[in-house]
Inverse folding.
């Protein structure tokens, strides 16, 4: 089913997604458990009601809430220590601590690069991203855990982007805090630290871990069917920036797609549940909770939006679910915007708690432009990097993909958890 022309016309004159994105940006910082996230939760619930969705629900749950303190790196013999937020910042869910050791650069921090170096008792520097020789994304948490497992005493996560922008991102694992102190460091500071050998450096990280409330927000449209299609994103962000792209855009597009679908609600054959999850950035906590509570047989599929909105070209990771791939390919063939459809597994966003249990799930994101991470997880993830016209352009193909998945003739097969986990292991994930 195609989106009718009358609805396409209204997309050019109404600015639901951009106005909501502005509202979410004004809630910053939206760190899980902080006041800004609570404001975003209320904004999403209000937006769902304004669109006319039914059964608007806010489900609270407790999360580990991390509060940033001071971080400092000292190199004996140098006149200055490094304390500025343009130089280094604590990584969420790091423990507090003071550690001393040599600085050891492990490149990208692949397993092979770690194996080449003796990092016992060291402060490890690992570059964000993945080398071209790798077929999948190497996540920050994987690099951190490899450092801790191999005996490092500290972890320095190096930015790939110029501009004195140390990266942030959770490293706590399933039982926060993590094992060793970890900080994000700017590319410029990393160059200073790795230019010549440093036999001794002192890293101090101060922070606090409490427990507060996060929440998932959901609402339904379409027929009252037992089976539902989940359209999802996460409303939390990090404490150092506005979280405009990651993942304000995803939330804004969930609302915009829901608004589009509302205009053809009578033609939907499967209920669609628009959902924004809390606490994604500290371990997919909101989506994991939802996946544990929902009856998987009643979830037709999960269509997750993350890392989206920076360009008008889309990609969809399908995790090997053929029916989802075919739906996305049909939208790509219509040509309204390019959609790169691939079977690869992606374990690092809110679709994964469902996919790893065999529930058909996919993630849509933007491609092209800068690298995949873009400005995300830095101070520079701000509204000025985005364009309302891009959101309007990609809302249409996203809505068409949801319509394809909600069609009665589309029946994505549920599989065993082992099937998806085997696919992930084949791509090098430890799941």
């Amino acid at each position: 089913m195609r989106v009718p022309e009358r609805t396409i016309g209204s997309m050019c004159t109404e600015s639901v997604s951009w106005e909501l994105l502005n509202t979410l940006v004004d809630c910053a910082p939206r760190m899980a458990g902080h006041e800004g996230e609570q404001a975003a939760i209320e904004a999403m619930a209000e937006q769902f009601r304004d669109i006319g969705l039914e059964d608007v629900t806010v489900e609270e749950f407790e999360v580990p809430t991390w509060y940033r303190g001071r971080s400092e790196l000292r190199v004996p013999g140098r006149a200055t220590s490094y304390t500025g937020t343009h130089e280094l910042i604590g990584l969420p869910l790091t423990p507090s601590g003071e550690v001393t050791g040599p600085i050891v650069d492990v490149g990208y921090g692949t397993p092979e690069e770690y194996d080449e170096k003796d990092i016992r008792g060291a402060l490890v520097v690992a570059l964000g991203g993945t080398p071209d020789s790798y077929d999948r994304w190497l996540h920050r948490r994987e690099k951190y855990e490899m450092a801790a497992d191999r005996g490092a005493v500290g972890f320095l996560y190096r930015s790939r982007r110029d501009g004195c922008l140390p990266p942030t991102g959770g490293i706590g694992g399933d039982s926060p805090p993590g094992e060793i102190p970890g900080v994000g460091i700017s590319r410029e500071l990393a160059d200073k630290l790795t230019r010549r050998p440093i036999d001794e450096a002192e890293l101090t990280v101060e922070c606090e871990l409490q427990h507060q409330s996060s929440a998932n927000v959901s609402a339904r449209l379409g027929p009252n069917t037992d089976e539902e299609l989940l359209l999802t994103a996460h409303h939390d962000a990090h404490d150092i920036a506005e979280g405009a792209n990651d993942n304000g855009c995803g939330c804004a597009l969930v609302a915009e797609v829901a608004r589009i679908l509302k205009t053809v609600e009578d033609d939907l054959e499967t209920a669609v549940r628009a959902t924004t999850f809390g606490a994604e950035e500290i371990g997919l906590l909101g989506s994991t909770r939802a996946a544990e509570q929902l009856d998987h047989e009643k979830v037709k599929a999960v269509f997750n939006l993350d890392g989206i909105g920076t360009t008008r070209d889309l990609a969809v990771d399908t995790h090997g679910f053929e029916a989802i791939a075919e739906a996305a390919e049909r939208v790509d063939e219509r040509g309204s915007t390019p959609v790169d459809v691939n079977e690869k597994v992606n374990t690092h966003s809110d679709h994964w708690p469902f996919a790893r249990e065999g529930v058909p799930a996919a993630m849509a994101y933007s491609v092209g432009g800068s690298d995949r991470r873009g400005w995300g997880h830095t101070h520079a993830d701000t509204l000025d990097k985005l364009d309302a016209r891009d959101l309007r352009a990609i809302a249409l193909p996203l809505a068409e993909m949801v319509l394809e998945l909600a069609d009665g003739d589309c029946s994505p097969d549920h599989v065993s958890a082992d099937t998806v986990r085997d696919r992930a292991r084949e791509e090098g994930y430890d799941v």
Summary: The two ends are 37 Å apart (CA to CA). The longest strand covers residues 198-221.
